[in-house]
Amino acid sequence: MLAMWRALHSFLADAPKRARTEQKPRPSATSNAQASTPRIPIVALVVSDHDREILTCVSAHEPVDIHFAESHVDAWEAMHRLNSPVILYDRDWPNADWRTTVQALASSPHRSCVILASRVADDYLWQELIRCGGHDLLAKPFRADDVARALNLALSYWKSARAAAAQ
Questions:
Q1: Whether 34 contacts 59, CB under 8 Å
Q2: Of 64, 61, 54, 79, residue with least CA distance to 147
Q3: What kind of fold does domain 38-166 have according to CATH?
Q4: How far apart are CA 118 and CA 138, in angstroms?
Q5: In whole angstroms, what is the distance from residue 83 CA to residue 104 CA?
Q6: Using one digit for the tens of pLDDT, what is the confidence trace for 76-111?
Q7: Model confidence over 3-62: pLDDT tens digits?
Q8: Which residues contact 43 (CB under 8 A, 6 or more apart)?
Q9: Percent helix, strand and coil across the chain, each rounded to 5?
């Protein structure tokens, strides 16, 4: 009986790890629609490997391609080269002031929506982000559903603002 409980415990303890490695995309109407939908480039400056994994997972289920930048210069070049409508910027990026970075990215000719990722997500930071030209605040550590929601809202806003400017 004890051996059975140990085996059950071992099986349950390894379940999350197996789920991550064994998950295969299932063909469905949603994935078929995504195959025909053009993928939208998103530039991300994130510090944590966990956040990169979550972003990669989200890009598998949403019509976005995440381009991980390794520096501010790399992000700026990718934003212009790809005409990226959304930039995801980690507040903890080393040797950088997030306010200056958000202002520079938000004031680009593409008028990209800048989403700030932060471990602190309070009203003060939200107001400061809006003053700097940012679009949204995303709490860390990332959760896939929160990331997808923030990206979709930013993309929707960017598309509507671009359509309004064209009229």
A1: no
A2: 54
A3: Rossmann fold (3.40.50)
A4: 6
A5: 15
A6: 899 999 999 999 999 988 888 999 999 988 888 778
A7: 544 554 565 555 444 444 444 444 434 444 445 678 999 999 999 999 999 999 999 999
A8: 67, 69, 75, 78, 79, 82, 84, 86, 87, 88, 112
A9: 55, 15, 30
> Where are the domains positioned within the chain?
38-166
CB atoms near residue 46 (< 10 Å) = 21
Tokens 């009986």, located at residue: 1
How many alpha carbons fall within 13 Å on the CB side of residue 147? 29
What pTM does this model have? 0.75
Q: Which residue has the tokens 């903890």?
A: 92
Joined together, the tokens standing for residue 49 give 């490997």
List of E strands, 6-85: 40-45, 64-68
**Distance, CA of 157 to CA of 89 (rounded, Å):** 18
Query: Tokens for 153?
Result: 């809202």
Q: How far apart are CA 17 and CA 141, in angstroms?
A: 18
